[in-house]
Fold:
Amino acid sequence: MTGPLDAVEFASRLISIPGLSGAEADVADEVERAMTSAGYRDVFRDQLGSVIGIAGPEGETPALLFDGHMDVVPAAGAWTTDPFRPVVRDGRLYGRGSTDMKAGLAAAIAGVAAAAAAGELAQPVAVSATVMEETIEGVALARVLDVIRPAAVVICEASELAVQVGQRGRAELLVAVTGSPAHAAYPERGTNPISLAASGLAALERLVLPAEPDLGPAILVPTDVISEPWPSVSLIPSAVRIRFDRRTLVGETREDVVGAVAAALAVIDPAAFEVSVSAGSLAAYTGATFDAPRWLPAWRMDSDHWLVGAASQAAKQVTGTSRLGVYDFCTNGSESAGVRGMPTIGLGPGVAADAHTPDESVSVRQVQQAKDIYEQLAIRAAGRPRPPGDDDSP
Structure:
């Protein structure tokens, strides 16, 4: 071990390596070097190329897994700084991936290393640096969880250091609309699927969706419409495909979501519409391919769960306050909590709305505080038993 890992400096190094989804190999190399240098006792990669580091004693199931993804979205828009040449200005670290989410990943790796170096861990604690989260949430984390099976999971996505106890899920729906082609000069000889699609969109605008007090309303929004064939010149097309983003709530099933949309469309034409959850094959930078159905469940934790309490205590110890909240967006927690029912929270530095924007940045102070919170949370989850009354929380 060469010494303590500086979370801000390490985040800057990660930002300088682009690591778009499916091209994270160089980021993974840097993460692996940093984990090894910081004293992780076991560092390895899985089939998809996610890097997993384990700190603390050997021979037990990790008490906690901190998860952060390595990939970023492209640096679109007008930047005033080079998106891949990180710079600290006015107390903020600028660069693509600063908020989403290389700062959180760096803080987790540094925080767990600090807890282990202090000799405070009685059980192992793990950190995963996963791939392709920007492409499909949860699929890479699923491979990690198959290998190490931790007792609980912390998703290090930006939360302004609030403890996130849930999130809406995400489903990508495909609606196939079938018509019958005809010459555009004789439209009456065919059935125009574009007209059917327009009626379907209007019907789905009127569809009543569920809502929850904490997670908010479910959402159904069209994101693209494509005719088949495309372009269709002087020809009524034979089909139209509409893609929808459906934000789901806890307890909604695939059958619930698909069935409600199908029922609303069947009123227009019982034979013209087919509704499905999209899926496809993706390739990781390792060359491994995997199926990726776009069904990512919502989840929510009880506020009195030990993990929520431990994270809140750690946040209060470091910052003087603690807050609970929920993510408005989808995270890898859809796999750990939504699919597997594992105890899961979210907690990370940065403002979520700053992600994917030009001049993306994160508070340097929050990155440093996140490292300290993760260190204290690791100790609370996996630390050595303390004598009664020996509690360092304020």
Q: What stands out?
A: The first helix runs from residue 7 to 15. Residues 55 and 248 are 36 Å apart (CA to CA). The chain has nine helices and 23 strands. The first strand starts at residue 42 and ends at 45.
